Amino acid sequence: MTCDEVKISLADYWCHALSEADEFAFGVHLASCDACRVEASLLEALWKGLALLPAEEPGSDLRGRFYETLGAYQQGLESRRSKSWSWWPRQPAWQVAASLAMLIVGLGLGYGVRAEKPHEEITQLREEVASMRQLVALSLLQQQSASERLRGVSWAYRAESSDTQVLSALVSAINHDPNVNVRLAAVDALHAFAASPVTRQAVVQALPQQTTPIVQVALIDLLVDLKEPKGAGELRKLAMAESADIGVRQRAQWALEKLQ
Fold first, then answer.
1. Per-position b or e across 214-234, b if 16+ CB within 10 A of its CB
2. DSSP per position, the chain
3. How far apart are CA 50 and CA 53, in angstroms?
4. Distance between CA 194 and CA 116 in Å, rounded?
5. Residues 6 or more apart in contact with residue 100 via CB below 8 angstroms
6. CA dihedral defined by 7, 12, 15, 19, rounded to 10 degrees?
7. Are the C-beta atoms of 158 and 137 separated by less than 8 Å?
8. Is the pTM of this model over 0.70?
9. Closest to 255 (Cα-Cα) out of 209, 207, 197
10. How do residues 76-135 score in pLDDT, each as one tens digit?
């Protein structure tokens, strides 16, 4: 196996999904490659950490809060409906006149907007879906439960790649979240925002703030994937830092060679 093949097979290896032949080749490569052996051990720690996360159970008041929210929504909907018809005349004669006027105007405008309306409706629907995904991701990323924040990171993948609010929330999670699994997942989620210059700058700035080896390695790999040459300075410092983990230092040196 090559280093790239090992990297692709890491998850399958720790899930015991490899064939006997592939598992043997995997083990042989790890025995001869320090960088891959370090990465494999870091991923093993991640899998074990994820397994320790407690399963979240819904609270006893979940049903009540759901129906309260549903009732508030229905009340607001009825209120909007009543306000939308408050302008309609109450006298029958004026109602007929208004109807005729609306019919004439509608016939005149209908042909002009008929072709544009489906496109406008689709655009509006996409905007509403994007707004909903953003709201869910941001809300979950603010929860106290680490498993809920991990769900927020997974929702971030569904946000638009140009969504600066979700991007900012992911960067904040990388720099400040107390849970290493959330930080690691947030680093991986930044791949979806790779086209943004803000992402590249944020990754470079986040690297010296991290002290957890597995997160440091994830950020180093992301810099390589982004082909970000501005990260060379921080990588060089990390590769020479005697206080850093030996595996992290080796990974930083490997990244420097890749970015040259």
1. bbbbbbbbbbbebebeebbeb
2. --HHHHHHHHHHHHTT-S-HHHHHHHHHHHHH-HHHHHHHHHHHHHHHHHHTSPPP---TTHHHHHHHHHHHHHHHHHHHHHHHTTTS-SSHHHHHHHHHHHHHHHHHHHHHHTTTHHHHHHHHHHHHHHHHHHHHHHHHHT-SSHHHHHHHHHHHTTS-TT-HHHHHHHHHHHHH-S-HHHHHHHHHHGGGGTT-HHHHHHHHHHGGG---HHHHHHHHHHHHHHT-GGGHHHHHHHHH-TTS-HHHHHHHHHHHHHH-
3. 5
4. 33
5. none
6. -130
7. yes
8. no
9. 207
10. 556 555 554 454 555 554 444 555 455 555 555 555 544 455 566 666 666 776 777 778
In the chain, what are the domain boundaries?
3-50, 115-189
| CA separation for the pair 175, 85 (Å, rounded) | 51
Residue 71 has which token pair? Answer: 């009732």
List, for residues 23-41, the tens digit of each pLDDT value: 878 788 877 888 877 777 7
Specify the pLDDT at position 244: 87
pLDDT value at 160 more than 70 = yes
Dihedral pair phi/psi, residue 160, rounded to 5°: -65, 145
Q: What are 194's two structure tokens?
A: 């790779």
- The burial of 257, by beta-carbon neighbours within 10 Å (0-12 exposed, 13-18 middle, 19 or more buried), is given as exposed
Structure-token match 């699994």, residue found: 181
Where do we find the tokens 């992911």? Answer: 170
d(CA 159, CA 134) in angstroms, rounded, equals 6
